[in-house]
Design a protein that fits this description.
The protein has about 280 residues and is an alpha/beta fold. The chain contains 8 helices and 7 strands; from the N terminus they run E-H-E-H-E-H-E-H-E-H-E-H-H-H-E. The chain has a 7-stranded parallel beta sheet with strand order 3-2-1-4-5-6-7, sandwiched between helices.
């Protein structure tokens, strides 16, 4: 299926590894020019080289004439005004503004809520709620003026089914979910702009490894035992891959998903037991 995205520009945050990288890979395979962002320059530039190699293999479809997708890497802290300025001012980037924005920030650390002070909460809210809102605010009007825009916020399955040791994430991401529910249904919906949240369950990433380590320490089991138990609890019988997560993201960004907005799309291998 041609997603109709060739030649568009996307910003993908947290793209040096894991789910963010999976999303960037899927978009580049569709001929999308991407600006990838993460804090650490080494891993980011390594991932950018991988994306450039993917883009070099891209061929336009349906007789369309498009150049090979461009890949720009900006190592900066997207949660700061300076980091956002660096991303939006990247040399060679889209002068007209981004057509696609994938917001993504590493989740706050797991733990016991009794141990978190105000600073821990402010840091979590800043990264996982306020930063996505700032990125939406900076891009949504330009998208509406051009008649096309896609914003996908990578949140968490914990928004639907909270996880006790992820209280910081539960709270901050739920705040973003409430905000998106309103703004996605505002006047921008009739102007070709969609905003959706993509909720990952257990995907085989560094983040999952960290939470399993915490769970193992609390339960007295080995990490291998925790991993096996968690896999067994998923109807699909396995953890997801960043590549299949990226494919879902790319579809939500596509011309075919223009009638989907304000939605929380859960990708968890069937783990959530509810009907709604």
């Amino acid at each position: 299926m041609d997603l109709g995205l060739a030649g568009k520009w996307a910003l993908v945050c947290g793209a040096s590894k894991g789910l963010g990288l999976g999303c960037a890979q899927a978009l580049v395979r569709e001929g999308v020019n991407v600006v990838v962002n993460a804090r650490q320059p080494g891993p980011l530039h390594s991932s950018a080289a991988e994306l450039i190699a993917i883009g070099a293999q891209w061929e336009s479809a349906g007789g369309q004439k498009h150049s090979k997708p461009q890949v720009l890497a900006v190592a900066a802290d997207i949660t700061t005004p300076e980091g956002r300025a660096a991303v939006f001012g990247a040399p060679g980037g889209p002068g007209r503004g981004f057509d696609i924005v994938v917001t993504n920030a590493g989740g706050p650390p797991p733990g016991d809520f009794r141990d978190w002070d105000r600073d821990a909460w402010i840091k979590a809210v800043d990264a996982n709620m306020l930063t996505p809102i700032e990125l939406i605010r900076a891009t949504v009007d330009g998208m509406a003026e051009r008649g096309f825009g896609r914003i996908v916020n990578i949140t968490s399955s914990a928004v639907k089914s909270p996880i006790d040791i992820l209280g910081l994430s539960n709270g901050a991401r739920s705040g973003l979910t409430g905000f998106v529910a309103g703004v996605a249904r505002s006047s921008i919906a009739a102007r070709g702009v969609t905003i959706n949240n993509l909720l990952p369950g257990k995907f085989d990433t560094d983040r999952l490894a960290a939470t399993m380590g915490t769970a193992a320490a609390r339960s007295g089991r080995t990490v291998q035992e925790v991993r096996a138990a968690q896999q067994a609890s998923i109807p699909a019988g396995r953890f997801g891959t960043p590549q299949e997560f990226g494919a879902i993201c790319a579809f939500l960004c596509s011309v075919h998903a223009g009638y989907m907005t304000g939605q929380n799309v859960l990708a968890d291998g069937g783990a959530y037991p509810g009907a709604f």
